[in-house]
């Protein structure tokens, strides 16, 4: 890599050396025009001036004559190389000065030294090298540039190299890059902070909320949000006031104890939903961050919705009861009129309700009237047969009445076995059959009781038939 400072210093050094050599060899040339006053040359003073300039350079400078003998080494070069001039052959420079390639492992070949190449008339720029010294055992990274020194006639007088500590420069550049990145991160963080502040401000300005903060003593340190107007307050009005004196301290103290709190309360006709979050610093609760939302409208909507849902539920219960109206039309006789389409869900409900009614009333007959049913599917027909089988297991007899022609065709096409099921044309026929059966059973029971007592049975036919019930379930 090139080093502008080194190149300028090299050029100046070459000019000074060439001028010095010329003055030492010859006197100043005569030119055209009036003769100038001749000045006695002072080689010693110029050499002193040149050495002082080289000594004060920040970069290292090494000069050799045309035979490769080192004739000058300034203080910066001795510091970076770890030693001064050594009267050695160029072939031993790498070993004497512990110079390596930039990897720090491969010895730098002496023949490729910029000073050696300069003695061969070559010019080099920014050759990377690593010099290890006792003071810096890890090595000093150098960037070396070399130039040949020639007289006015082009004769090679020697060579000069200029080098600088690029490690220091790299450290400086790395530190500068670190600071630049830190500044960039800080700027990004500031922008993000401002962006978040703008977002928060937009929320506070447009939503019906209040954001607040208190310290561990209950003193309000922040209070803002459009929702403050709902409470009859101005934004920021509570800053500096103690929340323990204004609001219920129980929830505040619970949150300050380290437990996040979520409560809903009502104040001045407004329903508020509060969130209280403990703020912890150095493992100590230093305050609370809270948000209060005006939920009056959503709460009212919720109550209205709950009321509508309750009404719908009551209506569903009424509808379900109307779907399966089980009526006790006579003592020990139940009837279940079915109307509309009977699906599997409805058939399952009928089964549950009918079996419960039979067990509760100790009924002897259960009449399933299908006068109002126009369509049944396979599952529904199977459910009806299962209902009658379940009724029979409870000690009652199931009767089907009012089967329509379309329903009868469906049952026959499905191949259902109705041989064990009693079917009658109308509900009246089914009710009459049940009453007769109850009467004949009562007569048989009366004769058996009379024979056990030794008395004749009632010639009128035993005990009278059961009396029908009115709408209100009272005997007529």
From TrEMBL:
Region of interest (Disordered), residue spans: 25-44, 444-476
Task: Classify the source by domain of life.
Answer: Bacteria
List the SMART domains hit by this protein, alphabetically: PAS
Give the PAS domain ranges: 46-122, 196-251
Low complexity compositional bias: what residue ranges? 444-461
Domain STAS spans what residues? Answer: 323-434
Q: Which UniProt keywords apply?
A: Phosphoprotein
**Under what name is this protein listed?**
PAS domain-containing protein
């Amino acid at each position: 890599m090139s080093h502008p400072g080194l190149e300028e210093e090299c050029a100046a050094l070459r000019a000074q050396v060439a001028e010095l050599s010329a003055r030492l060899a010859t006197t100043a040339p005569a030119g055209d025009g009036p003769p100038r006053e001749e000045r006695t040359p002072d080689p010693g003073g110029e050499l002193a001036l040149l050495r002082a300039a080289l000594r004060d350079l920040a970069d290292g400078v090494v000069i050799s004559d045309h035979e490769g003998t080192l004739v000058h080494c300034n203080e910066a070069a001795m510091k970076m190389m770890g030693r001064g001039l050594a009267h050695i052959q160029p072939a031993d420079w790498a070993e004497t000065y512990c110079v390596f390639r930039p990897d720090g492992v491969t010895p730098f070949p002496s023949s490729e030294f910029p000073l050696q190449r300069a003695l061969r008339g070559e010019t080099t720029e920014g050759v990377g090298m690593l010099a290890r010294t006792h003071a810096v055992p890890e090595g000093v990274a150098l960037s070396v540039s070399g130039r040949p020194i020639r007289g006015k006639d082009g004769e090679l007088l020697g060579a000069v190299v200029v080098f600088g500590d690029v490690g220091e420069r790299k450290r400086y550049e790395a530190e500068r890059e670190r600071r630049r990145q830190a500044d960039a991160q800080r700027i990004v963080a500031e922008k993000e902070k401002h962006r978040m502040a703008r977002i928060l401000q937009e929320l506070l300005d447009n939503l019906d909320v209040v954001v607040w903060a208190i310290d561990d003593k209950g003193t309000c340190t922040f209070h803002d949000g459009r929702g403050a107007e709902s409470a009859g307050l101005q934004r920021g009005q509570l800053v500096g006031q103690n929340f323990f004196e204004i609001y219920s301290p129980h929830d505040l103290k619970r949150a300050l104890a380290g437990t996040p709190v979520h409560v809903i309360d009502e104040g001045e006709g407004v329903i508020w939903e509060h969130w209280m979050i403990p703020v912890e610093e150095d493992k100590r609760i230093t305050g609370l961050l809270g948000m209060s939302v005006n939920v009056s409208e959503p709460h009212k909507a919720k109550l209205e919705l709950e009321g509508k849902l309750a009404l719908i539920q009551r209506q569903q219960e009424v509808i379900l009861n109307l779907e399966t109206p089980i009526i006790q039309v006579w003592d020990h006789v139940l009837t279940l009129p079915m109307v509309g389409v009977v699906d599997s869900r409805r058939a399952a409900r009928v089964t549950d309700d009918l079996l419960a009614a039979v067990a509760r009333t100790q009924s002897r007959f259960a009449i399933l009237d299908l006068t109002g049913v126009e369509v049944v599917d396979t599952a529904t027909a199977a459910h009806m047969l299962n209902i009658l089988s379940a009724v029979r297991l409870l000690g009652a007899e199931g009767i089907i009445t009012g089967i329509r022609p379309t329903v009868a065709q469906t049952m026959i096409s499905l191949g259902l076995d109705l041989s064990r099921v009693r079917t009658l044309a109308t509900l009246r026929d089914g009710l009459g059959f049940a009453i007769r059966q109850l009467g004949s059973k009562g007569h048989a029971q009366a004769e058996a009781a009379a024979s056990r007592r030794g008395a004749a049975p009632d010639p009128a036919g035993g005990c009278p038939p059961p009396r029908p019930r009115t709408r209100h379930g009272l005997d007529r």
